[in-house]
């Protein structure tokens, strides 16, 4: 049976088959094998050994024998390596063969083991076990093992032969080594040691001798017998080659072993054994050092130095000679040979390597160089470099001696490593500009360098130093000129000028001063002044370190030609110059450098002043300037910079003086200001301007104290003109304008007509000075009202800045423009202002008017009076928005503000209604309906619509401040009598009347204060109102008339005065009905009695005494004297109500006339008498003279007039502000309903909504029919089951209300709650800001729906008004298509209700009852609902074809839910709109 191999046995077998590297192993076939690496190592060592032996034996043989031996060595070595190469190539592919052989050998071994095992078992069974018997059991051994666990009966011989003895202890080792150290010390003391072996150490029974850079030897003694020789333990050669050896050992271990054996044999001698050991090792190390230096030299020549270094001689183990600076041996004048020798001292071999120099160096120099080979690093390059550095220093010292002998004033110095010779060429200069001369380390030649020199100059200077030393001074002169030019360029680098060494000049004669200058010159062009140059000339001086410098001012002009044949300079293109333009010299003026630099503002003059006057100021100035000059660079040419700056400043004054002479303006000449801070030119006087009055001209000339010109700026020069004024007429609030004298600064460009620009600005000063003088008389008088409203913020004589208003946060700046002869107004705000300047609305009108009258008093009076008005108007929304017009996709304006003048504003509301607003001053404003023509109130301006009930609405804002100006009868404003159709034959019309002066005459009066009012021509009876002129007859409008001179307030010209045969107001005898002044609906009675719209019962008017303003002959003469100052003098007639009225705020209707009871009904007089025409409101401006008794005429009816609002209504500015300021609706304090909107916008929006509702009803005549109403202002219409009344709220006139009542046959079908919901929804959701017309149209369509659908729509309104918080969603019925509608049916803002065979509505659901994180909006969904009227089904509108984007999950969820609800609900009686939508609100769940 074959043995079974365990994993452990398999691993052992595998390990036995794997040969260990470096050792012989048995191959699988049983033959011996060797590692390939070990074989390669053996072959390399064999080759190295044979090569070493060959190197030792070949020197003793002849040349032919040496060659034969070398060939044999090469052949045998080549064959060996070829075999090795073949073996390596075979080994790369022998892995598989080796693996198969190993497998085969393993299988053979396994088979052999099986056979051997069977044989052995058979042999034992047949021979050994035949007579085998069991021995007796060893009971004592078993007892010992079982009881004690040990077996102690083993024979001791086994232990003695196998177990090694115990080692000695550490103490014993220490004692032995200490004793051995003592023996070694004793032997060394008693023997003779060379001095070189003095560096030794004894440690652990060993002595180590160390010779630096040579060797280390370790010896010991084997006993304490004096005759025992030294035992050499170790040798370490310290010679290394860090440059070429790559850190490897230079001596082979076999050589070390050979030396070890040799030295050990020498140590067995009797005497001086240690000295023999030193001599042997020292000789070997020196030879090795020479070999290392030789190999380094070869590599140095091959890689870096090349032919500049050569090995002259090399004797192995004796001498190495290197030659350097080989080019110096080829010098014609003085050839020199430089070499370096390193060798062993033949006299004393114990000395280190010796170094010899050729030519010889001094002892100190040689000692410094020899240190390079005594260091830890053995390097031939370092030794060579140190030698060359020392040679360079010696050679530069020789050159220094020659230079100091030739140039006596030049001080040179040698510094640095490698040595550099420094030589200053010119004084002053920086160290970076010294001429530096160094020695080329490879060639030994001189290498000069100087800053700013080109390569050509350096090459010539190098050749001069090495070959032609006699020409050195010429090159030094060139370098001095070059450095001087560079210094000049650097000194003016920050100045506005450019440099060039040549100019493209035309031909000049030899007698020209420019031709006599030296060729070494520099042209400096002044950039700020064309054709001006500063010429700098350089000449040699006696001082060898300096050049003589002269300066010239060169003036040229452009020349169209260039004559090169005439001897002119050749043009050269330099920076800023082109060869196409040539210059012709005009003048060359020498500049005395001393006089230019020793002016009034120089250090020298300050020093002289200090010596003469003994002032501290002079000394401080000198010290300050010394501190400044000490900061300059060494090469900075202060003299040149000062001259250029002086020319740069003086040349502009030359042109200025010429221009002043041309304008005949006297001046004082150019002067230097105090402390030399600059130049100034002062004028003696300025000419008087002709555009102002003589008094103003005299005043402004007397106020001007000084006018001076100065130049400011560095890179960009500008003229600054300073005008000094005294006796300023006004006081400003700025701190810098508080002194007795004020300066005005004007800035002009350097090029251009400066004096003409100054004269223009001087004219502007005079233009502004005249209105300032007028203003000063008002604001400086504290009794004037304007002085408390206007304050001068700043007055610079160029512009005037005024602060105005009560809080003085608004400013206006007046700037004069003399070229256009007009003023410019700039508006701004200061301080705590929260809005922009309100006068920006009328900015152009203010500027135009001011340029017309040029009165600051009138300007500021207008601005102060109109400030509150414009602030209120500016609060109106004027930004275009969508949805404000029936065209939903077109943006429209809510308000459009159109200024007519600075105090006359027209406000357009949605291109329909117009408000004509006029500021009257004294905190009063008049407002009229701008839709009526100014001259004929029976005509309407094209494109506008009269505003219904505007007069009644405005009367609600009349406060007590203007109560003395308003009429006693508001109802007569609603129904002013018209003069049309009057009989012209009345006898009382023949009376003569005193004419009233025109408002233009009042404006021109001294007491008017310059306040401009809109003006119309005077009438024959009284002052006409500018807003409502006297009503002319239609036949009179065609008569020619002239434009009113004061019609700046209104754009239309006023008509002529009414002829004397026509009176503005008819006689009361011609009236067939009473004046409707006391109608029940009159606005004057609102405060007394205002019934609700629902009380349709007659209400008599209270008995109010009414007086006629007319004082004609039909009134008793006694009445004139009783109340002469009242506009309604002493009318003792009681005017009862003409009849009962059915609706408040309605105009009068025909009723019983009071003429039957009182005989005569008196007219309230001419409407213009009541109107607030001019500033004299409420006062009698004219009187009537009695012309005899009045003939009685039959009375006529006074019909209702729709143009009542054409008569202006007087309001205070506070009322206007309240009228136009955003506020919540009346009666609403806060909450969602408190939409901020101005009362005027609410009123106009309500009127607009009512008008649009009426237009929509006319288009829907088949479903909703309008019923004529006797109540004015009430819109009455009805549907199949309901009647509707729409009217303004009579209490506020700001909201539009709906009243709903069922028809007689439909009372049981509608509940009061449903009608109340319908009314409330109309008030809060339909006619609410921003008053969308399409929402009204959609609501009207909803009212035309069948009653069954209408009830469901009312329920939806209820859900929107009163949300059910138990549901998941809240509802909003979209009357217009929302902007984020996903259906894309129509543009946003379009009416969202369509009723035909089906009804389409839009609803928006908002998720409630979910806690959302801050900043996240609740979930909303917009659903288009389609209700099929015939099938009574409610579904979501399928608008996939209209929608370009795919349907979202919310749309699909809603659609599926409505389809499922329709399937479950089969109710065909009740409408399904409300039920389906409520089911959605209760159960809809849309995933996020």
In short:
By secondary structure, the protein is of the alpha+beta class. The strands form 10 sheets. Strands 15-16-17-18-19 form a 5-stranded antiparallel β-sheet. It has a 5-stranded antiparallel β-sheet with strand order 20-21-22-23-24. A 5-stranded antiparallel β-sheet has the order 29-30-31-32-33.
Quote the beta fraction: 15-25%
Oligomer: single chain
Shape: flat
Low-confidence stretches: 1-30, 563-579, 604-608, 611-632, 967-1200
Major sheet: arrangement of strands? 15-16-17-18-19
Radius of gyration: 63 Å
| Termini separation | 81 Å
* Residue share in helix: 25-40%
Instruction: Quote the average pLDDT.
Output: 76
Major sheet characteristics: 5 strands, antiparallel
Global structural class: alpha+beta
User: How many DSSP H or I helices?
Assistant: 34
Would you count the extended β strands for me? 42
